[in-house]
Amino acid sequence: MAFVKDMLRMWAHSWKRFISIAMITLLGVAVLTGIYAGCRDAFRSTDRFFDAQGLHDVQVLSTAGLSNGDIAALRKVNGVAKVQAERSQEVTFDLDGRKSATMQEIGTNGIDQPYLQEGRMPKKAGEIAVTRKFIRDSGKHIGSRLTVTPESASSDTSDTSDTNGADGTNETNGTDEAPSFPTKLTIVGVVLDPQNLSNPDGYSAMTSFRSTATTDYTFFAPSDGVTGTLCTSATLLVKGAAAESTFDESYENTVKQVTDRIDGTVKTDRQKARRQELLDAGNKKIVDARAEADKKFADAQSQIDANRQQFNQQVDQIVSMQAGAAAAGAAANGANAGAAAAAGATTPQLDETTRETMRETIIAASPELTQAKQQLDQAQSQLNEQKASTEQTLKTKENELKTSIPQVRWYVQDRQSLGGFSALKSDLDSIQSLGNAFPIVFLLVAVMMSLTAMARMVEEDRSLIGTYVGLGYGRLAVASRYLLFALLACLIGGGLGLIAGFLGIPAFLLVVLQGMYVMPGLRLEYDWLYGSLGIALFVVGVLAATIYACVQEMRQTPAALMRPKAPRAGSRILLERIRPVWNRIGFLGKVTARNIFRFKSRLIMTVGGVAGCTALIVCGLAINDTVADLGIKQYRDIYQYDLMVVSDDSDASAMRTKVASDGRVTSSLDVRIESGDLAISGGGDGDSGKAGSSGSESIQLVAVPEKHLSDLGEMVTLQPVSSGMLGTSGVGKTGSLKLDDDGVIVAQSAASALGVKAGSKVRLTNGDGVQATAKVSAVNRNLIGSDVYVSETYYAKLFDSKDAKNTKNSKNSEDSEALTWNAMLAKLSGSDTSQTDYAESLEEDSSVMKAVSCAHMADSFKFDLMGAVVALIVALAGGLALVVLFTLANTNVSERVREMATLKVLGFFDREVHHYVNREMMILTVMGVILGLPLGRLVGGMLTMALNMPSLYFEVEVKPLSYVIAAVATMAFALLVQLFVNPVLDRIDPISSLKSVE
């Protein structure tokens, strides 16, 4: 019992150490669990939402639409739980300029169901539900009416299934028709599209660089009123996928098994079958057209024959009359009356030559008969010409049918192809990667501080330990006094850390996340396993340090332990050998120098602890500086142009005329801009082993006219880059990179995410969905967005080959010879404000689809999620620095009490004692700061390499001010700790402190 009481008394006396260990554990556990818990809560709530709304696991698109046969084939695939046929149509409407929207039919099979936020779901024809983004932009409300115009050339079906041949067969087969939606619409509800969780009222409204939508808005309509049997896509749910977390690898593997089956025989067979359907439909129309033409020609021929027969009968009648009259006159001149009467009663018989001569004579003598004969001959000639022409046309159509109908292509996509899904997953994964890295530093610092504190605690009790061991107490029992002390401190600190880690930090992160994404049903959850392991990790680390300290002392005999520990032997230090310096140092300065380097363990612990905390602060500020400079570097340094204007192909000429007439442009470059996709080619040379080298990246494909390839360098800074170490990259000389016809130039942001380098083979997908394998000639410095530059000639080589022509959508088939330059990069005169205003005014023009001002983008670019996490990390690192310095200062004082008492006896005033002790701590702190500043840059580079986000490359940047802030903050914490330590020094009693231990 006395042993327990003495242990409790010892614990109470060491309350400062207890608080230090508890605080370090609290901070470490909070960092370890907090960021993880926040991301996990977001992952889980989003996964529940996706399951509730039936977000598709697989989506199948076709360049020719999907028929009922395609849908039936998908239902038979092993592993498919549900298949839903999707019908959609792109429309345009006027909203402060021309805007586009996708009319999406609400599925009837429970897949991709919109989440109702306000009002009710549409049920009748003409009713629609819109997103909150549309309500915000348009100012409309529930009950408002809207009129839209179908965009015949923009819907998926029209884009891909209008395979017009010479015969005009613009339908995919005899029965399937493209979807058509009502045009007079009424808003009855506001919904959330499960495919895009971006918050239109939050931070994401400014991050337009990450927008992946092909149209401005999505309108959801019921099946009532929708016509057309052809499907624009098919969405599938996979068996067993709902039981897995959509963000886990197990889910991806489950879905991949099904996509592999579809990509196998089903895809190949249905592509051939679908094209055969198109061919059969075209042949059927040609056969029907021939039959109809033959019928019309036969009717016309019958009419001509009837008219000619009537004409011939009329002429023959005249011939007979004239022949009879001639015969009667001859009889009257030389015969009797009876013979004349007999001759008059009988028609004379004429030979064919005489009759034909008489016919021609009669027709020639009569203008009416001549005209009638000419009309009959002309009608017959025209009919013969029409027959020949029609037959030739039909034969031509038969010959052109196979070449006019492209090869059907299927595209099988999973959730990773959804821009909103991949952006959310990438954001959370990147933040979670920070949460996995920072706790390591906290753990190392916690072990170092625990070793320092517990070693001093055991050393103070060495005589008591010797007494207990001499009395027969086991070494384990004696060591348990300190092990239980450290364990209790870890458990209390860890418990408080779990509260902060599963409630405080996640609540903070989720507030920031909800500013970027809409997450219905979001709630905080506790993970017993992860929380327990988090505490256990720090318990093991601290207890290991405590066991080491106990073993170091208890391996001596009880007699040795009960004697005072001999003072550390003095020794010369390196500075003493530098006489010119050493001789000029005062007495107290020499004592300070000897004390610093004599106690090497204290030197290592203090410098290491301060360096670790300083490095964490620098690392956080480095990430903040890197993110803060992204917009300026991209839109002011890399992009040399001031304005980018994009239009529809049909409005390209009008757009250029409009911009030229305004007189604001000083120089410009016409280009073609398409939204596409970049992926590692199956046989490419990409660094597939690199993190993030799998999957694909959404890109902006920029085609440059052949005659103006050299002008690209005036609009965009072309600098070749190569991967470097620890977040760095080798950047070549400006202007040393040229676009040519041997390959494409890939943006650094996309190349880094996919592991692409110069010489790699990549799979490019252009705006029409045509895929081609391209060579990467160089990687260009680029931080925001994923631009891929290609020359006009190389573009034609990639996408206008025979195979590409067969797979290209019909709407752009006329572009195979010459591209339509639908965009302009321009330099403007005037201030940044005037350039921004001009871009906004251009967007109101009907010929302009999008106008982007680089000045506006540079000023408005924000990345609030990363900024919030960095602020959290810097705050926690600052708290850790404060705790570390407090622990080290108290340990320093506790182990030098007799020294401080001696100084007081010798006549040192309190202020002189403060200066004597604090000077050593400040020198050690400065040494730790000097070591921590470059260490922070090193760690910051490593962490930014782990931040693999779509369309972003983090070029590590640490401003001088950040180094100053980190150093000043650490020194300020050291000064703050002095305010707590100085009263302890004042309370040292020289008489009691100098008493003999005996």
Low-confidence stretches: 153-174, 203-213, 339-345, 683-694, 801-817
Average pLDDT rating: 80
Shape: elongated
> If helices are DSSP runs of H or I spanning 4 or more residues, what is the number of helices?
30
What would you call the quaternary organization? single chain
Category by helix and strand content: alpha+beta
Number of strands: 23
Indicate the radius of gyration in whole angstroms. Answer: 44 Å
- How much of the sequence is in beta strands? 5-15%
Distance between the termini: 25 Å
Indicate the percent of residues in helices: 55-70%
For the largest beta-sheet, the strand count, sense and barrel status come to: 8 strands, mixed
Provide structural commentary.
The chain is α+β, with helices and mostly antiparallel strands and 998 residues long. The protein is built from 30 helices and 23 strands. Strands 3, 4, 5, 6, 7, 8, 9 and 10 form an eight-stranded mixed sheet that branches. The longest helix is centred in the first third of the chain and has 86 residues, at 249-334. The radius of gyration is 44 Å and the shape is elongated. It starts with a helix and ends in a 5-residue tail after the last helix. 43% of the residues are buried. The model is unreliable at 153-174, 203-213, 339-345, 683-694 and 801-817 (pLDDT under 50).
